[in-house]
Design brief:
The chain is mainly alpha-helical. A two-stranded antiparallel ribbon has the order 1-2. The protein has one domain: 434 Repressor (Amino-terminal Domain) (Orthogonal Bundle). It is built from 5 helices and 2 strands.
Amino acid sequence: MISYRKLWEKVEKKGWSQYSLINDFGINAATLQKLKRNEYVRTATIDRFCELLDCQPADLMDLIEETDDEISKALHYAETKEY
């Protein structure tokens, strides 16, 4: 499973809210929800975040083992953060 925890950490460090990602940077709200749930997104989305955050794809995501515990941790992290 891909975890986007690192992406959300970078967004948080920049001080960007979900509102600013949608309105200032043109990120679709449905795409943000997919990212929060660690679901599949288009590579164009990853490319856009790499441009915005001046980084590489590996700086935004991790491949984690699909154990129930690891998936729960990844989902919990994204769900408890306000962006």
